[in-house]
């Protein structure tokens, strides 16, 4: 078995239109495909991010995330950015709360965290 890249990450949201606006209009991800699956009362939105994708799903009454961020399973999703200050200013301009920028003690790279509309922890990691 030879894994070659991460193809996609899947996110389940509680309010589809709010999350779609966040990922498309605030984070700037490109819509690849959007479908409504009537039998599941669920939307699936495929978004492009670099060479990977995010699948944004809506389901009726999804359970809440057990804790932030230390629940078992995926801890957070990290996005690489060219300029962390510009990205933080852009997010704050759109009402997104961003933690103070820190420096990774092992790589010397700057990073910070913020949340999507469902409090999913997201990271910015400067190239």
TrEMBL record:
The keyword Metal-binding applies. Keywords: Metal-binding. PANTHER family: FOSFOMYCIN RESISTANCE PROTEIN FOSX (PTHR36113:SF6), LYASE, PUTATIVE-RELATED-RELATED (PTHR36113). The keyword Metal-binding applies. GO terms for molecular function: metal ion binding. Gene3D superfamilies: 2,3-Dihydroxybiphenyl 1,2-Dioxygenase, domain 1. SUPFAM superfamilies: Glyoxalase/Bleomycin resistance protein/Dihydroxybiphenyl dioxygenase. Pfam families: Glyoxalase (PF00903). Residues 5-127 form the VOC domain. This is VOC domain-containing protein. InterPro entries: Fosfomycin_Res_Enzymes, Glyas_Bleomycin-R_OHBP_Dase, Glyas_Fos-R_dOase_dom, VOC_core, YwkD-like_dom.
